[in-house]
Amino acid sequence: MSTPPHQAVPPQNTGHNEPPGEGRAGLRAGRLGVAAIVFFVVAAVAPMAAIVGASPVVFSVNGVAAPATYLLAALLFVVFSVGYVTMSRHITNAGGFVAYIAQGFGPRLATAAAGLAILAYTALQAALWSQYSVFAQQLITDKLGVDVPAWVLLFATLAVVTALTVRGVDVSLKVLGLLVLLEVAAFVVLDVAIIFGGGVSGNSLAAFDPSALVGPGLGVAFLFCITCFTGSEATVVFSEEAKDPHRTIPRAVYTSIAFIGVFYALTTWALGNSVGADAVQAAATDDPAGFVFAIAESEVGAWLSTVMEILVVTSFIAMLIGFQNMLSRYLYALGRAKVLPHRLGEANAKTGTPAAAALVVGVALAIILAVFEVAGADPITVTFSWLLSLGTVSLIVILALTSASIIAFFVRTRLETSIWKTKVAPAGALLGFAVVGWLAVQNYDVLLGGQGGVARWLLLLIPLCAALGFGWAALRPDIDYQAELV
Q: pLDDT below 50 — which residues of the chain?
């Protein structure tokens, strides 16, 4: 039976420690520390791919103020995390934001959010897989002179990543750790070279001048910066596998956001100084695809540019492993909650990983991508652009709804007394994400790369998926999100 949203939630079984008589395997608790979870978050936001792909756009629309724009986006996520972390002390559930919404507003609205979450993360993953295939094909063609169709690389890599996810967190974590360290190390080399060399601007701090930040391009730039933090939910999705959820998760949340924000800001500051405060906007606009690589070659050498071209592809793989691990745990939690088939709510008895859910994610992505491929859609201008835009707006809606649910949860339970943590900060986050959502809809054509028309109709999937989730919950009174309150 579902817990009424106005009541405090008693301690419940979360699935990994159910009685043997249930015959149900759950996630293996106590396997992930702060560093492991941070790795998954950082991998999901893909620093290399984000800097190479998004920073030229941010520079082109907001000029030298790109670093400050990244810090502003990080600040919004920090404000959101105040209430998020406070509530995490009372909830341990692989359902992520959906579990929070369930405790704030009840199972029906939570199931509506579950529909949005599945839409958001499936769309985002499919978009990124499509973009990955193009980068991988270009790399192999340019460096090896071998012409391999993009779709072959896409489905072959998808099969490998799905196998890694089905096999378990431990295997994926080793791969992620190596890939993330390599891409961060490459940017450290570039940043150090630029900072010690001074660049054209001589380590100018003009990028952090408030007057430079508030310009006509701030809204669009801010929106693109927000998309670089979309993997932050992984902290709570992995909470049931954390060594000490009530300590590990808060530390992982703040560590990952601080690292991502500082890393993006420092690197874009160095890139801007390398080109020059007065020239960076034009340089990023003229050659967005080669902007970062050209700087790497001029500041360090051709070898670093080549290494970074390779790491962009491996960065995508790391990101896709992180996302697939996250979505599989989402489906696991929804299967356990009786929203989806119960088979998805079981974990492998030996590895403690949601193998069935991971396999379903892989198959679903293969089907979606195959449909676009058969339809002859361009992998970048159609598949990537359309699905990334849809996933971004869907996720912003979920973040706003989660912020509101945090307020509702503490108003009803009175488990915490801090007004800042339970009301002011969540309200600030709600306002912030509402503004970002408005910017996303207003600038949807920009997100689509200048396209409109048919692609705009995909936005109707957001209310449709939410309505289907809400209606499904109305028909299934036995839905139970099994949040654990301690």
A: 1-24, 483-486
